[in-house]
Amino acid sequence: MLGDSPLEFPVRRTRAGLVRRFSTTAARPSAVSAPCCPFKVAAGLAKDAQVSTVISQQKQAAKAPVMEVFRSIQGEGLYVGEPQVLVRLRGCPLRCNYCDTPHSWALAGSSGEAPDPATPIPGTDGFAKLEEWGEAGWLTPFQVTCAIASVEDGRRRTISLTGGEPLLWPEFIAQFRSFLEPRRLHLETAGAHPKALAKVVELCDHISLDLKLPGDLAPPKPFGAKSEGSTESKGDVSWIANSIGEQSATRDSQVKEAPARERSFGGPDVPSSEPVPTSAAEWSEVRREVLGIVRERDACAKLVLTAQSSLDEVECVANDLLQFAPDLPVYVQPASRFGSSEVPSAARVLQSVEIMLERNLTCRVVPQVHRHLNLP
User: Fold this and answer.
1) In this predicted structure, what is the pLDDT of residue 123?
2) Which pTM was predicted?
């Protein structure tokens, strides 16, 4: 098992001809170089002294609950079809009725958890053996990068952070970035955590932003609620506090006392406490905020449609896109048959496309390609 990286943030570079500048109101990250390249560690090329130095410096590195690291092709959004390495983090408070990875909702796997039918057993071809790099699924950025190197097969690939909801772990993302150059880092998010997104957006080369329709969501389950299919509350903050120290419980009490829209987000090993929207009005507020964050960046929006999706809600989303991010490409994604969702009719898909085109928005219809190919 290996340790992880220094805590400094990396300076971002210009990507794909787009100038990346930090806000003048935010603290500028300082450039760092990792003391030991994890890709050399995984290949057995690093010196013992280098590895020892890394391990000794990793006592305070952030950790995140990593569910799986695997190579595949990107099946959604702007970079559909691109070979990538995907890093899936656990934890999500949302309950989308079309979610195809509900086993990623809880922070820890449960004994009754149903495996993803399209996912091979970890350790088979394309999947990293996470137990070789860390304990109990909680890994540091350095450990995750070693796992990436073990499946990358000598060819550099874009790294896509997915979930669950990666924005529950902004400190982890900030530290993870420093190990990946010259690889690109893509972030897939539900768009429910604007404060966390604002913190890490400069570190990402691409943002794939879901535009949620409130009618397709069950009530969210904040951490602290019992996870489906679990015999204990493995997703709550008190459980994490018991694992990593009493400071988490203290912080949790401070969060509960803060106003809903002023709650801070998590530190190392603690999921973001940023509240998620629960009503159509709150979703509209958050959606406008996240669209403003990504509007001039390498980003795309995904709109998942089910048979039950409301065209009125599609119009609300389209109006927000027109006002806050009119140049953002929109990918209308018919839901795969999974969970309680039903596949939308062709008529509903085309009606949604017309709503986008009426506002001169760039729109494409792309289903989940990886599902059609039976890939993870």
Assistant:
1) 56
2) 0.77
